[in-house]
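User: Here's a protein and a ligand (RRO). What would the complex look like?
Assistant: Let me lay out the input and then the predicted complex.
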Amino acid sequence: MAELTVDIAGLRLQNPFILASGIWGETGATLARALRAGAGAVVTKSIGVAPRAGYANPTIVEVPAGFINAMGLPNPGIDAYKEELEEALKPGKPVIGSVFGANAREFCALARKMEGYGVHALELNLSCPHAQGYGAQLGQDPDITKRITASVKAAVKIPVFVKLTPNVSSIATIGKAAEAGGADAVAAINTLKGMAIELELCRPVLSHGSGGYSGPGIKPVGVACVYDLFGAVKIPIIGMGGISSGEDAAEYLMAGATALQVGSIVYKKRDRTFTHLSRELSHFLSSHHYKSARALTGKAHGRS
Ligand code: RRO
């Protein structure tokens, strides 16, 4: 049997598959459920300083090869999230706290609270594609990315991951800025900006208008981003975007990922997601005579 265990910035994962932020992440019970169903780790919904209702419905629409969402960063606020994390931490596996803020001060306050609640690492959301004053509006700028990352690194001891947007001309430039700010890893990619039009109404389907496209349709974009990042940074890369099979996972690992996140597939495979992906990746590794998932990282770069 090939070894699926991976290490990322000091976190040991039983398998490379991490539940992505925003999927089952608003309650601790569903995060714990994903861990008990075999996730190597989970990322919380992105949490801000105050409760936020998010956008009006419709907030998600199925489109060919995926979904477009504009949830609008709904979350209960950091103070109310403590008890959710108590639940999420019960299975004893890595829990990564995702946070979003408007500036370095908010990010630091959120990071300190998350660390105090016991999360094992942080993921800075500098990449939500449709949030006025948050997410990609900050993370499209390398200087802001570096400054926020460095501030959070100075505020906490736990590892800090930075989640990057693909909606830029050079993700490598942003990845380097996160690394220069001291990031322990980068996660790529958040959703691609997208839109669907309701023909009879002659209006965008989602109440917000545009949203973030996820699912199998974005996999080639995610793989290319991870490939570019692997050539640009030395820190580990957490790859995501449209992973729904063991072969998709192998592609991301070969492009340069050390660990992987999954989102849209969870709506199809639900609790079977993680056992399904682990079984398929294991089969791919054994049938291609690889001893471990680790052995695949960066293979597509032809360096060894
Ligand atoms: O909540 C959202 O609408 C959302 C977030 Br925070 C994000 O980072 N990416 C996304 O596609 N949606």
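Summary: The mean pLDDT is 96.
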